[in-house]
Design a protein that fits this description.
The protein contains seven helices and seven strands, in the order αβαβαβαβαβαβαβ. It has helices spanning 2-21, 34-45, 61-69, 83-92, 123-149, 176-196, 227-240; strands at residues 25-28, 49-54, 73-77, 100-103, 155-159, 202-207, 248-251.
Length: 260
């Protein structure tokens, strides 16, 4: 009887250990606020293992508070323009399958600067926008591709924008740097999708909608939605992605195809 009891306990232990090991993992860039922070919140609530990155973790109070409450969140320092740091994190997590690599970090224009005409273009900001918004996700995808390939879900998600679409972007002179960087991002991911298709990886770009990231009292754009609504839609959509969504850009609310 005692032997039987021990066997039963061991069986429960191994089953529990396997269940814990089976929890999916999401790696999120730009996780200190707004959409990124809400992704951390919702995926951690679902029991996922969450690797959340921020440029300045010491100043990421809300993210650190979440990580203190939930033991499935790990906070890492990362600036996506720092390719050496990306490589160092890839080495650190080389044996960790990543089910969803979520490229969220981005530079977005301030409300007033968004409407500056060509004589107001800041070329230093334009270069930085390209480095963060376009090259950042490409480098992340390159560095962590083997982690994604080793996972169960095999998904690379990139937060893009309709502003980078020639067909669906605003038909007016605005957001020069941001729109150009997102168009470059879209082309890089479109091109990369020809590779991911061969490795059974699903690479999908999502438009999060016009999201208020300034807080309820700081809403600036008419028709904007809160991060909770956008992320709830996107998490649901990410869970339904299939190989036919590889290389596509989809709308957050209904999964509709967005034209390039």
């Amino acid at each position: 009887m005692r032997v039987f009891f021990v066997v039963v306990l061991l069986s429960h232990f191994f089953i529990s250990t396997m269940a814990l090991a089976a929890e999916p993992t999401v790696f999120i860039t730009g996780a200190n606020r707004g959409i990124g922070l809400e992704f951390v919140n919702q995926y951690s609530q679902r029991g996922w293992t969450v690797i959340a990155t921020a440029r300045k973790p010491a100043e990421a109070d809300d993210l650190n508070a979440l990580a203190a409450e939930r033991n499935n969140i790990t906070v890492e320092q990362l600036d996506v323009t720092d390719h050496a740091r990306i490589d160092a994190l890839a080495e650190k997590y080389k044996d960790q399958p990543i089910d969803v690599l979520l490229n969220n970090a981005a530079i977005t224009p301030k409300y007033m600067s968004a409407f500056k005409k060509v004589d107001g273009v800041d070329y230093d900001m334009a270069k930085l926008s390209y480095d963060v918004n376009a090259l950042g996700p490409l480098k992340m995808s390159q560095a962590f591709m083997s982690n994604v390939e080793a996972s169960e879900q095999k998904k690379i998600i990139v937060i893009s924008s309709k502003a980078g679409s020639f067909q669906e972007g605003p038909q007016r002179a605005m957001m020069y740097s941001y729109r150009a960087s997102k168009s470059a991002l879209n082309m890089m991911m479109y091109t990369l999708a020809f590779e991911t298709a061969k490795d059974d990886v699903i690479l999908t770009l999502l438009s999060p909608g016009t999201v208020n990231t300034m807080g309820v009292l700081g809403r600036m754009m008419p028709g904007s939605i809160q991060p909770e609504e956008s992320v709830t839609n996107m998490v649901k959509l990410i869970g339904t992605l299939k190989p036919e969504h590889n290389g596509k850009m989809l709308n957050h609310s209904d999964g509709a195809l967005i034209a390039w």
